[in-house]
Amino acid sequence: MTLDKLDLSLSQELDSLKAEGRAKAPERIIETYIPPNGPKGPRYKLVGSDKEFIRLNSNSYLSLSQHPDLVAAADKATHEFGVGPGAVRFIDGTFIHHVALEKRVAAFVGKPAAKIFNSAYTSNCGLALSISHAKTFWIGDQLNHNSIIRAMRISNIPSKNKAIYKHNDMTDLKRCLDEIPLDMERVVVIFDGIFSMRGDFAPIHEINEVCKDYDEKFKDGVITVVDDSHGIGAYGDKGRGTPDFCGASPDIIIGTFGKAFGVNGGFIAGSPTLIEAVRQKADTYIYTNPLSVADCAAAVKAMDICDGKEGLALLKNLKERTGQFRKGLTDQGKESIPGPHPVVPLMIRDTKKTQDLVKYLFDHGVLVVGLTFPVVPRGDETIRFQINASHTMADIEYVIELLKNFK
Question: In order of start, what are the domains of the chain with their CATH numbers?
Fold first, then answer.
């Protein structure tokens, strides 16, 4: 027995991806981190290149992954309990750091309870497995993240129990609610807080207003869920993300520690009963090892920083650098999608020009993500810039000048 026949078929599938323009480029490997120095923010070196790169494709919005307090907290926890838990949570794989993080994140997002997962992806899937039954109806935004789409697919409900509304369109959301079969008992409306390729946000206050008119219609009500992975920590007056910015919270909040908080892992936050149902029913929680104690300790420290003066200062700089970059694009007459978030898309609307600009920026020491046809529809080609709190005025000005000089 060999893999020869399977390898042949897989090679043909991979060739098809390349022909369709959907194959991913080889992964670049970071080999060196260079700390901030003077007017320059951090730089990175890649295997096979002598250049120093600015990362404008990082989700680490508050730039906390190198923070000495997070490193120290992770180191202390590791020396106490080791590098791995040795078991799943319900077989004595729960340590004090797991419980501490669950209490801390619940308080941070303003919910009574939370359960942590290895990622926000597995959190979304775990929620779907926990709250779906034959009379559950799911409604999602047209531009939801793949993890939400996957969660809706594995929720063990038929396709007729699902609907999609046009992006951020409250009239179309109302249409979906109006068309729910009368025998449904439980409705879940789920959406991203920040749509990661666009930087725009879900109007939670408006979604709540639409949904509350239908709550009495169904036995278990209409449950609103936000995946605020790109939002939490990254914007809002107190860094609480989309609920903070909108002044309204959904029933359930899903999020990650892997972006603004600079660590690993995800979470679900909601009522104590919901969280106990997740603990009992979510396969993606029950049957896999939990986060390391190092990740948990570092994530708690990240939220402590966010709650203090240093966190507010990081948030202020992040907002200012985002504003600086957006103004630079506007001054050059370039097209973007408005929004308060540090994800800033540059609409190129041409595949070759997008590819050329990504290469031009790379050649000048700037890492970005380009989205081209057929990954996005023809005419929607985009470069996604992601501003981080460690970027300096000089860093942003350098990139703006590069864009100005690109022909």
Answer: 30-59+309-405 (3.90.1150.10), 68-306 (3.40.640.10)
User: Are residues 385 and 398 in contact, defined by beta-carbon separation less than 8 angstroms?
Assistant: no
The residue with tokens 């725009």 is 200
Residues in the chain: 407
Q: What is the distance between the alpha carbons of residues 230 and 260, in angstroms, rounded to a whole number?
A: 7
Q: Distance between CA 252 and CA 236 in Å, rounded?
A: 18
Query: If you search the block for the tokens 């996957």, which residue do you land on?
Result: 150
Q: CA distances (Å), 70 to each of 26, 133, 220, in order?
A: 31, 41, 41
Q: Of 293, 375, 330, which Cα lies nearest the Cα of 79?
A: 293
What whole-number distance in Å separates Cα of residue 9 and Cα of residue 167? 37
pLDDT in tens, 359-373: 999 999 999 999 888
C-beta atoms surrounding 326 within 10 Å: 20
CA distance 28 to 69: 28
Q: How far apart are CA 234 and CA 60, in angstroms?
A: 9
The answer to whether the CB of 111 falls within 8 A of the CB of 270 is: yes
Q: How many angstroms separate the most distant Cα atoms in the chain?
A: 64
The β-bridge relationship of strands 266-270 and 136-141 is: unpaired
- For 8-29, what is each residue's pLDDT tens digit? 999 999 999 999 888 988 999 9
